[in-house]
Amino acid sequence: MSVNVYLKSEEVKEKPGFEDHENVVFSISEIKLWNSDGRWHIMLKRLEDPIPPSIADIVEEITFLKEFSLNPIRKMGIYSYGSARAEVDMVFGKKIGPRFQVFITAKKKEDLQELYEMIRAGSVFPDKNKNYESQQKTGFRRMKKFWKFLQTWKWN
Description:
Order of helices and strands: EHEEEEEEEEHH
Helix content: 10-25%
Shape: elongated
């Protein structure tokens, strides 16, 4: 699981308390910052952790990535709620086997949390025309074989 809070790049260095420790470690009021690909961000340990008040006014985007089991089944596709947009897809691990992965981006942390909870609870469906599981005109037999394979997967 990862939770990253991206900040408005042009405003980071203007914040009171910004410190540059030899272009390696950066901080604002003792909050450790990272700069990846020109984007400033902090990392939260858990989705429930609050965004520090000293940077709350310069938040640009929040991202959340998590994997969870195939049971209960969730529809793969694009989901939306408020400022949040999520993609639920299947990933395969060598040791764990297939799992669902959810990647959510949002402007507001509350929207992100609510959308994640709705996906996990099964109370929301993918957006219209963004359901990855809708039948296609071609390749249906191949998908049917794939789903049959998943149903016979040995879960140790």
